[in-house]
């Protein structure tokens, strides 16, 4: 009985000294140490509000600057298998079974920045899609800053504006009526050997002169794919082949050399030049 009591006393004493020791550790040392600790605990918040996230700094930010803090954007990979054991290699969606799809399943960011197709045909930058948004404001008008802002261009709960980014490459096929095709592309593609260039060698040729696309590489890829009868797959990749939207994008009609006089009715509201934010060369007119 006595022995037990003694053990209990030792254990209790040990506990008390441990608690005292730990409390001592938590106490600030010098004021300098305290300041450093405060900084460390605030640095995540500080980085979240780094001016680089906002206009105007974000508009001239390089990928390297963003990646210095956001390596996860390019380094994260998808799981090889779902928690239930379904393997990623065995679950290909329809848009992952086209002739242009290469490599393993990959993340959203990597499919736009790092896959073979992304590198060959595009040169998207972080700030092509991320134009800066208010992290406190995930819905319009919900705070004083929101109410004071011009809400046009505000995209609910989104960090990018899908209308000015995604829709350009993931809209519906522009429409066979507008192109004066006799039917949908599936119905008529055999007339054109599945080749968009059949017409587009001479129509709307001032295309893709924007800084996030590799205009020449796109044409080369479409021509190369002619041998295998897959030429249109290259174009469809961004014009209807992965259409996440029910509407087509109203492309600017950059004037081309053989452009007929007069503007068709459907094109009356169209801009005549690509968005200046992205034009690297003066469109020829
Ligand atoms: C100094 C480090 C730093 C730099 C540089 C930086 N970020 Fe961030 N970013 C952060 C931190 C920290 C967060 C908050 C992350 C969190 O809370 O999960 C964040 C959050 C974000 C978010 C999510 C915001 C939200 O509302 O949830 C996006 C998108 C983002 N950054 C994009 C960018 C882009 C694009 C660039 C380059 C223009 C960039 N960041 C540069 C540190 C940085
Ligand atoms: C093709 C357009 C696009 C490009 C290019 C792009 N992003 Fe994103 N990014 C997105 C979208 C869409 C989201 C999800 C936004 C949402 O949930 O509202 C996102 C989310 C993020 C987030 C928030 C965290 C997360 O993973 O959800 C960070 C951080 C981020 N991007 C950083 C970057 C960086 C750094 C780059 C350049 C290396 C980059 N992005 C390039 C479209 C893009
Ligand atoms: C400049 C053209 C372009 C823009 C802008 C663009 N995408 Fe894509 N997207 C592509 C291409 C090309 C692929 C196919 C890449 C590949 O197969 O390697 C793709 C693939 C995808 C995929 C399929 C990924 C997979 O695993 O197969 C999704 C989802 C997607 N994009 C969503 C978006 C969203 C959302 C946005 C806007 C934030 C966006 N894209 C902006 C061209 C674009
Ligand atoms: C029979 C000839 C023909 C074929 C084949 C053809 N197009 Fe077109 N396309 C046109 C014409 C005509 C226009 C409208 C020209 C104008 O602006 O007056 C057009 C316009 C476009 C536009 C711009 C649409 C807009 O809203 O401004 C895109 C994008 C396009 N075509 C992509 C394609 C793709 C991708 C293919 C192959 C899958 C293809 N075209 C096949 C004749 C054709
Ligand atoms: C990687 C994505 C991508 C691929 C591949 C692609 N396009 Fe485009 N295309 C775009 C984008 C984005 C625009 C709008 C650019 C702008 O704002 O001027 C565009 C614009 C166009 C236009 C309207 C051009 C104008 O200024 O009048 C035509 C026509 C067109 N594409 C045809 C094609 C044809 C034909 C192919 C295949 C040879 C093709 N595209 C392949 C993304 C793509």
Helix content: 25-40%
How would a crystallographer describe the biggest sheet?
none
Number of helices: 13
**Distance between the first and last residues' Cα:** 102 Å
Uncertain stretches: none
Quick one: how many beta strands?
0
Explain the layout of strands and helices.
Layout: H1 2-26, H2 31-48, H3 63-69, H4 72-75, H5 108-113, H6 116-121, H7 126-129, H8 144-148, H9 166-170, H10 185-188, H11 197-200, H12 215-224, H13 231-236
The structure holds heme C (HEC) (5 copies).
Keywords:
globular, 285 residues, binds heme C, mainly alpha
Describe the structure.
The chain is mainly α and 285 residues long. The protein contains 13 helices and no strands. It has helices spanning 2-26, 31-48, 63-69, 72-75, 108-113, 116-121, 126-129, 144-148, 166-170, 185-188, 197-200, 215-224, 231-236. The chain is globular and about 95 Å long. The N and C termini lie far apart (102 Å). 7% of the residues are buried. The mean pLDDT is 85. The protein binds heme C (HEC) (5 copies). Residues 63, 66-67, 70, 73-74, 109, 112-113, 124, 126, 128-130, 158-160, 165 line the site of one heme C.
